[in-house]
Amino acid sequence: MIADMEALQAAVCEDDPAEQQNLLALIGRSGIPTLCSVFSSGEAFLASFQPGKYDLILMDIYMGGLSGVETVAEVRKTDESVPIAFATTSVDFTLESYRLGVLKYIEKPAGEKAVRELLELALLKRDSRPRLFLKIEGVDVGVPFERILYVEQQAHGLLVHLTGGELLHATERLDALEPRFEGRGFFRCHKSFLVNLAYVRSFDRELMVFTIQGGENVYIRRESLAEARRAYESYLFRQARGTDRE
Q1: Are residues 145 and 86 in the same domain?
Q2: Which of 32, 129, 133, 240 is the most exposed place for a label (fewest CB within 10 A)?
Q3: CA distance 224 to 81
Q4: Selection from 8, 38, 9 nearest residue 23 by Cα
């Protein structure tokens, strides 16, 4: 998926087939490369959602089952930063939009100018995120730090595990790469592993692993168990105080 790394990754959640097609057509004519995943309900969207998977979520407010507001509230439990826009015939949800950090309203039926401006704003936000630049198949590729679950050293390079199930193969060595992660919430827990503490879900001293989002285990060297626990607890404390993001 390296060729698609620079296209916007967008989710369109809209239960009206006509408006769904209208949005997709407007996105296609915007001139901004965008890969769209389409959902007809909040439940279907949440079933596939993962933090860091999308650069933009375009959410219908009025849907059968979960409303757009209820769906976005669930998203914000695990992803505080993904840009979200409401598509609606009403602006009666201003307070909820502020509370949920919604980027913009798109009035339905959506128009070409409003959709293009939304995509431009999402693109600007995505490209301003701090990135790790890696040499992949001879090309320098910028990967947002917030999309990296963990990095794994193998014999002939690195495996970079990303949100959304993507896996990148890079030619660098972890020892040389590690300084670039300083101050960004990562921890070198093993000679072969560096983990993003934001995606750690549990710490198991007996098994000597961090379990991360999705259920994968990242190994911790025995000598680093105490330090790993302190790093994880310190991260959780900073997050609770709202001081973890730089």
Answers
A1: no
A2: 240
A3: 31
A4: 38
Contact 187, 197 (CB under 8 A): yes
pTM of the model: 0.65
Beta strands in the chain (DSSP E): 8-13, 34-39, 56-60, 84-88, 104-107, 131-136, 139-144, 148-154, 157-162, 167-170, 186-190, 193-196, 200-204, 209-212, 217-219
Pairing, β 193-196 against β 148-154: antiparallel
Cβ count near 94 (within 10 Å): 10
Domain count, the chain: 2
Spatial distance between the Cα atoms of 119 and 32, rounded to a whole number of angstroms: 7
Cβ partners under 8 Å of residue 102, min gap 6? 72, 84, 85, 86, 96
Q: Are residues 135 and 60 in the same domain?
A: no
Closest to 10 (Cα-Cα) out of 105, 95, 118? 118
List the domain range (segments joined by +) for residue 7.
Answer: 2-127
Q: DSSP label at 198? A: G
Tens-digit pLDDT string for the chain (246 aa) = 433 447 899 999 999 999 999 999 999 999 999 999 999 999 999 998 987 788 999 999 889 899 999 999 999 887 878 899 998 876 665 556 556 767 888 888 899 999 999 999 999 988 888 889 888 888 888 888 988 999 999 988 899 999 878 899 998 899 999 999 999 999 999 999 999 998 999 999 999 999 998 899 999 999 999 999 999 999 888 877 755 544
